[in-house]
Amino acid sequence: MGRVALVTGGTRGIGEAISIALKDAGYTVAAVYAGNDVAAKEFSDKTGIKTYKFNVSDFGQCQSGIAQIESDMGPVEILVNNAGITRDATLHKMTPEQWAEVIQTDLTSCFNMCRIVIEGMRARSFGRIINISSMNGELGGFGQANYSAAKAGMIGFSKAVAREDASKGVTVNVITPGFIATEMVLSIPEKVMTNIVNGIPVKRLGEPAEIGRGVVFLASDDAGYITGSTLDINGGMYMI
Ligand code: CAA
Q1: 143 C-alpha to center of ligand 1: Å?
Q2: CATH of segment(s) 4-232
Q3: What is the pLDDT of residues 85-102, one digit of tens each?
């Protein structure tokens, strides 16, 4: 049995590709999802990866969900915070609910999950936390003040925790995907989408598996000297 890797939002989109890439690399994977039972069952039937249903924006549910995973599989050594939603609207039309829902699901979830696993990782002197942010957290996405704030928040959060836990064998890194061919991106209005693809230097959307390969690298023993870093996988659309 390989190390236990937990992937939130792990049954669909980028998260599905991350779960599969980690499984193929030898990890024992737990894929967490929030609501879509049909997609989770299809994913599980296809991959043989075990799924767990709980809401990552709720601290209590994270505590019981992680306890269940650890009792089934052993301690979580790799945590990939990938779960995220969009509620796009320009600020002058954004509701307090659209703001709060995105902050809670995309950013507070990251605190919830990390807070629960961090003590065990520190005690065992090994851990890999990989937070899936977004290029739009660096760039500022049009119509995404809520999402951009949450995704930028993940980067600052990760650097702080990386600093705190570097001496304990725990690395904390961020991946910032650009436009990846998932349901979320493919639901962007067509006229906006054409402009987006024209603006990507490699002239195509990214593939979910391209993010999965980045995660496998950052999770590996070979990546032990990399912490607090942000890996842009965006086809050259944003270069720091
Ligand atoms: N850049 C510049 N202008 C833009 C724009 C953009 N990205 N998107 C829209 N506009 C313009 C429109 O062309 C329009 O201009 P005109 O009035 O001159 O035609 C104006 O802004 C208003 O646009 P809408 O008519 O669409 O206004 P709306 O209020 O109905 O919707 C919106 C606004 C919700 C932001 C909608 O345009 C939208 O959904 N845009 C896509 C947002 C987006 O890019 N989301 C990324 C999702 S993918 C993702 O988040 C993954 C990731 O991590 C990268």
Answers
A1: 6
A2: 3.40.50.720
A3: 999 999 999 999 999 999
